[in-house]
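Structure ticket #2291
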Amino acid sequence: MPIVYWRALDRFRDIVAAHPERAAVIHADGRTRAGLPDYRQLTYAELDAWSDTVAERFLTAGVGRGVRTIVLVRPGPELYAVLYGLFKIGAVPVVIDPGMGLFKMLRCLRAADAEAFVGVTEAQALRIVFRAYFRRVRVAVTVGRSWWQGPTLESWGRTPTSALPEREPAPDDEPLLLAYTTGSTGPAKAVVLTHGNLAAMIDQVDAAREHVAPETSLITAPVAGILELLLGSRCVLPPLIPSQVGATDPAHVVEAVERFEVKTMFASPAVLIPLLAHVRQTGVALPSIRSIYSGGAPVPDSCIAGLREVLPAEAKVYSGYGATEALPMATIESRELLGDLVEQAHTGHGVCVGTPALHVRARIIPITDDPLPDWSDVEGRAGEQSGPHGIGELVVSGPNVSTHYFWPPTADRTGKITEGEVVWHRTGDLAWIDDAGRIRFCGRKTQRLETAQGPMFTVQVEQVFNTVDGVARTALVGVGERGEQQPVLCVELEAGADRAVVEGGLRGRRDEFEVTKPVSEFLFHPGFPVDIRHNAKIGRERLAVWAAKQLGREAS
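Resolution: structure written out below.
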């Protein structure tokens, strides 16, 4: 088989040729005498040579086209050198969140059936201790110090011995990346992202920023860095712990923005909410920021409004909506959101996440947990949507949307719908589409309530209660048997809020709207469990168990 590469890397090589000394990755490394993060820089030419070296070494070891390669490397220049090196030879990186839990992660990695493994010292130790999970691995490379035989990334050096052999662009439908979902709202699945999927994401990111060439971008999600580097950005990586993004020090984010005159920021709400609080408290200005892109979980409208107040008037704040299987699905800018759309969300219409992204199509299908392998199965359930506005499950298709899973074997049957040549992805999200083509998100399908009065949808209800003074956030859960579930609202208070006053406000708010009237109990929780990737998605399943115990009942 011929050696292939990811066609989108032609963009990268063009940037290297035109601007070899431009900083590509600016990453935190140690501290200054003043106690602030210190930074090192890797130029585009250096990253190109380093990734060429990685590609050359892997080819020599027999790792090439289609070879699945587990990558357990912390965000930083090493990660991008490894990923770009694998992309240059058609190998398929396998990426996963270690924070999902040891044995859950091991089960997922065993299913990947990988032949190569690149990981930090701790990851390699895990591979050796649990060698039965990695029986097919024949090439193992350590990032960092190695206490056993085998190459390290450092020993490979950063300069190739010769030019890479002649290669050809891989077909768009060939796997480029295997990415696991977190499993925070359902079983973790291995998503196949093709060469065409990731290339389409680049075009969508470029379109979202109105084709304005990036200058300097602050990155807190590795996938954003992959795309930004192909657009010529200087990518700044502040110090953070991947499994605890919400613990990122906002002062370090501000310092990085100021030091490198960051123009664009990619961050989850878990980063943006503390950042806004820090900016308000200190009065620091962020004059260089021109755009902020947030994703991973719905951004509270109060956070978006607050960012608009502290950022330059011309700055844009985008809320992105997507999933591992389809990133992005939709976006909306703050100026469109902050108006009637916010008020409508607060009265039970669901959160507006914007119009579908470039070349993405969206439809609503009836709510069911049954497989719908063919579009004729959907048509056979016409008219079954539940709730006002015809709320149903959102399905999407487009060039950036993954059309199949690698694992588990049953995932395609339950998560994809075939319509001729088109494959629709079932998002598992409940929504409706308004007359302007905007998606109104109402909650996860697996987290819906089935009460004696009918179905209830989490986000649709929670948005009504989140407006009460003293409420940090809420989570609707069901207690009891499906079909007879008791709707219970879990409440997280703001610091210093009076519980009795807040509860009175919640009860008054409940009685104003039909969608909230069935809520029978209000339980106050010290701190909601959240997902590991973005530290923002609420773990309602765990809250349901907690609520059931509080009420002396059993969760369904």
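Closing remark: DSSP finds 18 helices and 28 strands in the chain.
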